[in-house]
Each structure stands twice: as structure tokens, then as C-alpha cells.
Design goal:
It contains 11 helices and 13 strands. It is α/β, with parallel strands linked by helices and 358 residues long.
């Protein structure tokens, strides 16, 4: 049965800007009060906050070492306000903040002081988004970034960072908002730690001499290998008996055998170096690892001719490729090429299998 209190609860989407003073806990008590007072005055003086407050479309929540601003007017409100605050902070170098923005459900509550307040997942996630950043960062949840990306003037300011694991193991997708003068274009420390962790996991092993790939990448390579086997071996199996009959000697014939040039074996493949599409060109070793892993799996398949990695290095990415010509030059019926792109903890692998026209 629905209670009266539940009926009074109305769903509302709040556009939340969460602001936190970096290093607040390391300050002396009187310094904390001074910095917080300075930030409050600065925020209240910004044009976007004053306009929303005057229209009754803004709720301000204290948060110990910062605040949460809930805008009830425009979806652009938190982002516009964040840029104005970042501009004002340029003349207050002692106040270092980080900001997080999210759009999500909120609801009004009555706090312990019997005052009207606001709570909900929208505020909690905005704080989690902020927690992924460092001083100067203006971070947005994917939901907000996707909304703003629909407008031309916001698109150049949005930069995808990938996924970040926050409190209670929650994973959120985050974008960085910055201009040439405002915000922090540097990759947040949490994302750098993710990158370093991946690089440590993928570092070349002295014992094996090649980088052990992440489970996800290994799975992708196995699936690519299985797809290749299906393409190569299925036609060969279908034609096996007909070829055997056609190649069988004819006892009634006394004609001399005709010399035939050796045909390119159907069950043969070359795996070209994959192209590194990641923004960080230092990830080239990771891309090479994907190629090595595919070669390793294919080499275990009996009756499949696999060209060595050394022989295909002349076709390294960046050089114009014609898969048919490459297949003929290497003496294989199939040629695999592809690309690898990494963004934070996400990996995207694209592969294309070409066939030599025989």
C-alpha cells in the first residue's frame, strides 16, 4: 500500500555541480574557515549563480569542505557556472578546488534542523565524479557530457577520459571539461594510475620475452583466431574430396605429366602489424602484443601456414597496403590487418581479413 509520504515524493532531475576544496583537511582550523568563506563569496558573486538564485532555480548545499549547487533551470547551468567559478578562481590562487557535474534524480527532504533540504543519487554521483579529479579539474558524468555534446559550442570543450572506479566499487564514465584558459587539461591522477596499472600488467616478461595481455585482450585475440579458422578451413573442408578426385592419377592415360607451378596453399595466413590508434603513441607495445597474441594462437593450429612476425614487419602500419598484393608476395591465401585503440581502461580492436585472388 502506498503511504501518503510516498505519494508526496515527486521525481525531479537536478543538474548538480559539486565543488570541493583540495587539501582542505591539511589546513589549520582558522585557515579552513578563511578559505571556505572566500570560496562562498566567490561563488555567490558569479553571474550564473546569481541569476539562478534570483529566479528561485538554485539550491545551495554546504558540504563541509565545499558545496553542492543544484540548478533547476537549464541543463547547461552547472557547466556554465563551473567555467565562471574557474575564471574567478584565477585571481584567488590560494583556493584550489575540483568540480564534478551530474544530472540525476533528487528529492526535497527535511533535515534534522527541520529545514528544507535536498538529497538523492544526482548529488551522490556528482560527488563521485568530482572525486575522480584533481585540483582545477571540471569533470562531467557521461550523461551530462552526452547532453552537452549535442551543441556545437560545447563539443570542442569535452574530452572523454574513460571509466573510473569510485566508492563501493561503482564504475562511472567521465569526461573532462576545459578550454584554452579554464579547467585542467591534464589526465587526472586516478586515470594515470589505471594506465600505469595496465602498463605494469602488460610489461614484457623476462621469462617469456613477450608481454602477457589482459584477459579481455586475450579473449578478443582468441575470438579473432577462431573467426579466421572458420573462414580458412570451412571452404577447404568442403572442397577436400573433390580436389582429391581431381588430383588422382588416371591409369588409362599414358600422357606425360605436366609440370604445374605450386599453388598458394589455401590454409595459409599472414598477420600484419596492427595500427595504434591510441592518443598515447607509447601504447605501440600494447598494439604489438595484440598481433603477437593472435600469431601465437594461430601457430598452434595444425596444417595452417603462418608467416612469421619478422617477415611482415616491412608492412608496418602507416604504409599503404594492398592485401591482395601482400598475400601474393608472402605466398599466403589470407592476410589479416587491424587496429587497436585504448582509452583509459577500454580497449577497441578492429580486424579485417583479406583474401589473395587465386
Amino acid at each position: 500500500m502506498t503511504t501518503g509520504r510516498e505519494r508526496d515524493l515527486q521525481l525531479e532531475i537536478g543538474r548538480v555541480l559539486f565543488i570541493d576544496i583540495v587539501g582542505y583537511s591539511k589546513l589549520l582550523i582558522n585557515e579552513q574557515s578563511e578559505v571556505l568563506h572566500e570560496l562562498n563569496d566567490l561563488v555567490r558573486a558569479t553571474e550564473r549563480v546569481r541569476a539562478a538564485d534570483a529566479a528561485g532555480k538554485l539550491i545551495r548545499l554546504p558540504a563541509g569542505d565545499g558545496m553542492a549547487l543544484v540548478f533547476r533551470d537549464s541543463p547547461e547551468g552547472p557547466a556554465e557556472s563551473a567555467l565562471e567559478i574557474a575564471q574567478a578562481l584565477k585571481s584567488h590562487p590560494a583556493v584550489q578546488v575540483r568540480m564534478g557535474i551530474h544530472s540525476g534524480p533528487v528529492n526535497e527532504i527535511v533535515d534534522v534542523n527541520e529545514r528544507s533540504n535536498i538529497a538523492g543519487a544526482g548529488i551522490n554521483i556528482a560527488q563521485r565524479v568530482m572525486d575522480c579529479g584533481d585540483a582545477g579539474h571540471i569533470l562531467l558524468s557521461k550523461r551530462v557530457a552526452d547532453d552537452l555534446a549535442q551543441y556545437r559550442h560545447w563539443q570542442p570543450l569535452l574530452h572523454d577520459l574513460g571509466e573510473c572506479e569510485v566508492k563501493h566499487g561503482t564504475v562511472i564514465s567521465v569526461a573532462n571539461l576545459y578550454t584554452d584558459e579554464l579547467g585542467n587539461p591534464a589526465v587526472p591522477e586516478k586515470f594515470q594510475q589505471i594506465e600505469e596499472k595496465d602498463q605494469t600488467a602488460l610489461a614484457p616478461s623476462p621469462a617469456r620475452g613477450k608481454p602477457p595481455l589482459l584477459t579481455l585482450v586475450i579473449l578478443i585475440c582468441v575470438l579473432i583466431g577462431l573467426a579466421i579458422v572458420a573462414v580458412i578451413f570451412a571452404p577447404a573442408a568442403a572442397k577436400f574430396f573433390s580436389r582429391q578426385r581431381a588430383l588422382a592419377p588416371n591409369p588409362a592415360s599414358s600422357a606425360s605429366p605436366i609440370a604445374i607451378a605450386p599453388a598458394i596453399p589455401q590454409k595459409s595466413i599472414a598477420v600484419l602489424p596492427f595500427e595504434n590508434l591510441s592518443d598515447d603513441k607509447q601504447n605501440s607495445y600494447f598494439t604489438e602484443g595484440v598481433q603477437d597474441e593472435i600469431l601465437s594462437h594461430l601457430a598452434r593450429i595444425a596444417d595452417l601456414k603462418v608467416i612469421s612476425r619478422t617477415s611482415v614487419m616491412q608492412y608496418k602500419s602507416g604504409v599503404a597496403r594492398n592485401l591482395g598484393e601482400i598475400g601474393g608476395a608472402l605466398g599466403v591465401a589470407h592476410v589479416l590487418e587491424g587496429s587497436v585503440q585504448r582509452a583509459g581502461a577500454r580497449v577497441r580492436v578492429i580486424a579485417q581479413l583479406g583474401r589473395h585472388p587465386q
